[in-house]
Amino acid sequence: MPIFKTPFNGYSVKFSPFYEDRLAVATAQNFGILGNGRLHVLSLPPSPAAPISEIASFDTADGVYDLAWSESHDSLLVAAVADGSVKLYDTALPAAGNPLRSLREHTREVQSVDYNPTRRDSFLSAAWDDTVKLWTVDRPASVRTFKEHAYCVYSAAWNPRHADVFASASGDCTVRVWDVREPGSTMIIPAHEFEILSLDWNKYDDCVVIATGSVDKSIRIWDVRNYRVPVAVLNGHGYAVRKVRFSPHRGSLMASCSYDMTVCLWDYMVEDSLVGRYDHHTEFAVGVDMSVLVEGLVASTGWDELVYVWQHGTDPRAP
Fold first, then answer.
1. Torsion sign across C-alpha atoms 67, 75, 158, 257
2. Of 237, 243, 256, 246, nearest to 292 (Cα)?
3. Is the pLDDT of residue 2 over 90?
4. Whole-angstrom Cα distance, residue 13 to residue 44?
5. Which helix (H) or strand (E) holds 307?
6. d(Cα 225, Cα 72) in Å, to the nearest integer?
7. What local confidence, expressed as pLDDT, does residue 316 receive?
8. How far, rounded to the nearest angstrom, does the alpha carbon of residue 149 sit from its chain's CA centroid?
9. Per-residue model confidence as pLDDT tens digits over 134-145
10. Rounded to whole angstroms, how far apart are CA atoms 9 and 37?
């Protein structure tokens, strides 16, 4: 597959749940420390020999750290921005008509956004102000704020099957599981001894399994029905694990990316769990995703200002 060059440092990449040839990329200038951001909407070519084309791009005054596609509108995107805002974009409208809305409640950088795949009308934002907020598309203010973590919340993710359940991962070294119908968290998992930068739910087996990625360089797999010890511990990254994503097609397959500049694929159910290592990035690899619509299709982005899309088992750099 071809490569796409972004003007700023890559932070997050997500495949569209509606179109198999579409993905979006969140970027930030100057490694996200200071400067502008840009959201790119890209179209994959029908043949690997053709280049990736840009459908739309949207500039922001601050870096964009994450994004999520709407599960109900094929052109709607939610972006997590370094100024503490959550912005909604309609990619079918010109740049002058965007953002549709800028939601400003967080008091620090927003690190993560996730759209509810079951209810399809709501999304989460997680931020460095130690909170997670619940939003709906039609309301200008958040529905609820979840404040129990003692440090930055780096990731929040909806359960793929249970519409009211989500999990959050924090620099306080815990994962908390929440039910929006309950007044507080329903579960606290002391998942690592160091900061937890990412989590994701497995899409299979009644959606009771969570993966966590940490500054301690490990990925741990947890069954929320019995979380005293992890189901598996995956070691192989040389630095902090920045993002973990379960495959939508195979229950035991997952992807991760790391500050060691690699993307890894794992099968956590087998003894030799590392099934693929890709070292195509030349700076921190911070974003990875697996396509819902095309089995085995992986995308990654990093601080080297590059977006790679490839089929699992092939070389991302191959033409």
1. negative
2. 246
3. no
4. 13
5. strand 306-311
6. 31
7. 83
8. 20
9. 999 999 999 999
10. 9
Per-residue pLDDT of 51-60, as tens digits, reads 999 999 999 9
Average pLDDT for the chain = 96
pLDDT tens-digit map of 158-194: 999 999 999 999 999 999 999 999 999 999 999 999 9
Structure tokens at 50: 């053709």
Q: CA distances (Å), 270 to each of 36, 217, 273, in order?
A: 43, 20, 5
Mean local confidence (pLDDT), 280-291: 98
CA 294, chain centre distance (Å): 18
Tokens of 303: 């601080």
Reading the block at residue 304, the tokens are 């080297």
- Residue 1: per-residue pLDDT: 67
The string of pLDDT tens digits covering residues 190-208 is 999 999 999 999 999 889 9
Unique residue bearing structure tokens 């693929």: 276
Length of the chain (residues): 319
- Please tell me the distance from the alpha carbon of residue 132 to that of residue 168, in angstroms, as a whole number: 8
Token pair listed for 21: 């040839």
Please give the Cα distance from 219 to 255 (Å, whole number): 10
Q: Where do the DSSP E strands lie in 51-174? A: 53-60, 64-69, 76-81, 85-90, 101-104, 110-115, 122-127, 132-136, 144-146, 153-158, 165-170
How is 216-252 classified by DSSP, letter by letter?
TSEEEEEETTS-SS-SEEEE--SS-EEEEEE-SS-TT
The answer to whether 11 touches 20, Cβ cutoff 8 Å, is: no
Maximum distance among all Cα pairs of the chain, rounded to whole angstroms: 53
113 strand-pairing partners: 125
**Separation of alpha carbons 316 and 285, rounded Å:** 14
